[in-house]
Amino acid sequence: MQPLGPANHSHQPGQSRVEQRAGVPLCPSLQVPELWKAVSYPSLKPLGSYLADLYKRLDMLAGWATAGQPPAVFWLPGFFFVQSFLTAGLQNYARKLSIPIDMVRYDFEMLGMDAAKHQHSPPVEGLYIDGLYLEGAGWDAAERQLCESDPKVLFVPAPVMWFRPKHVEQYTTFQHYNCPMYRTTDRRGVLATTGHSTNFVMFVRLPSQQAPQHWTMRGVALLTQLSS
């Protein structure tokens, strides 16, 4: 990758510390260069936010490597290809029980809003997931279910979730909304060579007292990252 320009260590008005660290010259648009986008994960963030997000991803992986073992709670947005990571969780479970992977799906359990409570106790099976956002709805932390969003609030943090692999015949039954998860707010993508969408990830069953159509009409979705 060709550098965009020499690092400028002096602070310039309008230029963030993150942009200085990356050696990116001040420019009117401050958008992610097309050269970077060609080899990047999907992102709609401007340059400064993109770099801050990138450094957070690198810190997550460095911490994982330093610890010598995976974290108890996974920051899902930090993975380059989210779908592959989630598929690996299903594969581990299928191999453990010696059953076909196409007979295994994720069930979902809402754990609350504080990921720190689970940092030292990984699940017996499956994945604890953090870092998602809800668009188009709010989250009732006390009842652990969807609720109406507050006025002028477009996005709220989603709860920590337990992605628990189960045989398809062992799914729990509860009133829910089958919520689509996307990697960006764009909500569209193309089919990659793996057969996965570059943006859509999966459906997640979120508890709700309302009928699913209620949230469908509001366009409620889970996102792994915002655009700012």
What would you note in describing this structure?
- The protein is α+β, with helices and mostly antiparallel strands.
- It contains five helices and eleven strands; from the N terminus they run H-H-H-E-H-E-E-E-E-E-E-E-E-E-H-E.
- The strands form three sheets. The protein has a five-stranded mixed beta sheet.
- Strand 5 and strand 6 form a beta hairpin.
- The protein is globular and about 50 Å long.
- Mean pLDDT is 88; it is low at 4-15.
Average pLDDT level: 88
Sheet-strand content, in percent, reads 15-25%
- Can you count the helices? 5
Instruction: Give, in spatial order, the strands making up the sheet with the most strands.
Output: 7-4-11-9-10
| Bulk shape | globular
Secondary structural class: alpha+beta
- Number of extended strands: 11
Low-confidence blocks of residues = 4-15
Give the proportion of residues in helices. Answer: 10-25%
Strand-and-helix sequence, N→C? HHHEHEEEEEEEEEHE
Head-to-tail CA distance between termini: 25 Å
Largest sheet properties: 5 strands, mixed
Radius of gyration based on Cα positions: 19 Å
